[in-house]
Inverse folding.
């Protein structure tokens, strides 16, 4: 699917530029060992068994630093004020201050930076210090020619892409619990152990009871402050466990299903995880063709059909609709209810009630909230939530 952003001719010259960088793995680990020299740190990395060569981590870190230095140098030359913050920081005031936000890194850096922009007024571009543009969805390999980025902006040689994002409204009793990152795989076990410790310790138990009382007193409706640029995924934390949902699409029929999860994505996300969930292999296509048409096709013909099918899944980032995908829908005598439940479709609104035991709602594969039995989430797209993305010509 070819993107067709609107062409702008209006010159744009930012006076205040904010760089938002994703912390590299080298920088993250190095910060934990500030008092050892380079050789000792490299030896320490070997003992951590990261599965990644320390030289690679170092090069990745150096490319990031070089990109930041170049940006700083160009901003001074151009007379623009420039700041760099980490994506882990609370940058609300910095984002308000900036005319232009630059995410420094790959697609993940772009997603993290987009979470800090809450409306459709603030422009963002991405600079990737590491990869070429055709390897990632959002990234642009402009690090070696940063000055040219701003010359193009000044001449109006850019397009505007208003990437729609998903707004999530949650209803339930646990919707105000502290969020955590999706890579904290043992979070639920931590919670269980915490609860057991509370039972043993009277003081901790009292604090836990107070927290529960406060939580009960909070509103049972919450508009999440995090907008999903790619997708929202719901499922059990234990990957081998199935989950039951009640879903309603565009205020139509209500379905009760059992599956391994549900993905709701935007046009931006249709080329990401959503696409991976729908990938097919040549063997499947060849077998279906033989059953349906009674003819054999070769590998190349099967690949052409697959490519055409995959392209049909993609839709424009500016589309005001979402697409949902029910992952591994369990079809048996009992499920789904009714039997006509569709596995995938386009919609403007989708309502999902969880009947999960230890489930989570994950936004852009990062921000995670509990999504257990009785909790409901409604997903919609609003124009004012779109992300203003400059795409250079």
């Amino acid at each position: 699917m070819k993107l067709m952003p609107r062409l702008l001719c209006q010159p744009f010259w930012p006076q205040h530029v904010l760089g938002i960088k994703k912390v590299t793995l080298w920088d993250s680990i190095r910060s934990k060992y500030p008092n050892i020299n380079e050789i000792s740190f490299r030896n320490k990395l070997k003992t951590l068994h990261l599965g990644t060569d320390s030289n690679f981590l170092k090069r990745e870190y150096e490319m990031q630093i070089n990109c930041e230095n170049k940006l700083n140098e160009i901003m001074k030359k151009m007379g623009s004020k420039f700041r760099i913050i980490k994506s882990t920081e609370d940058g609300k005031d910095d984002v308000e201050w900036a005319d232009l936000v630059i995410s420094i890194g790959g697609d993940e850096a772009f997603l993290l930076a987009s979470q800090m922009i809450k409306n459709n007024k603030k422009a963002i571009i991405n600079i990737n210090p590491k990869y070429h543009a055709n390897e990632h969805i959002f990234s642009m390999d402009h690090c070696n020619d940063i000055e040219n980025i701003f010359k193009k902006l000044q001449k109006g040689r850019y397009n505007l892409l208003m990437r729609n994002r998903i707004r999530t409204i949650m209803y339930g009793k646990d919707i105000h619990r502290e969020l955590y990152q999706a890579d904290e795989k043992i979070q639920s076990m931590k919670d269980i152990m915490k609860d057991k410790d509370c039972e043993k310790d009277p003081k901790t138990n009292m604090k836990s009871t107070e927290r529960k009382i406060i939580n009960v007193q909070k509103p049972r409706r919450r508009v999440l402050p995090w907008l999903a640029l790619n997708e929202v995924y719901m499922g059990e934390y234990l990957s081998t466990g199935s989950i039951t949902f009640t879903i309603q699409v565009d205020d139509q029929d209500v379905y009760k299903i059992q599956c391994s999860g549900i993905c709701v994505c935007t046009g931006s996300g249709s080329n990401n995880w959503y696409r991976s969930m729908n990938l097919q292999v040549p063997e499947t296509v060849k077998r279906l063709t033989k059953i349906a048409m009674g003819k054999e096709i070769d590998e190349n013909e099967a690949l052409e059909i697959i490519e055409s099918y995959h392209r049909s899944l993609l839709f424009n980032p500016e589309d005001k609709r979402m697409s949902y995908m029910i992952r591994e829908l369990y079809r048996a005598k009992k499920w789904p209810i009714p039997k006509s439940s569709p596995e995938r479709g386009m919609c403007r609104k989708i309502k999902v009630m969880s009947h999960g035991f230890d489930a989570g709602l994950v936004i852009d594969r990062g921000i995670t909230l509990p999504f257990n039995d009785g909790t409901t989430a409604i997903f919609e797209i609003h124009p004012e939530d779109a992300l203003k993305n400059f795409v250079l010509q």
Summary: The first helix runs from residue 25 to 30. Residues 183-190 have pLDDT under 50 and may be disordered. The two ends are 18 Å apart (CA to CA).
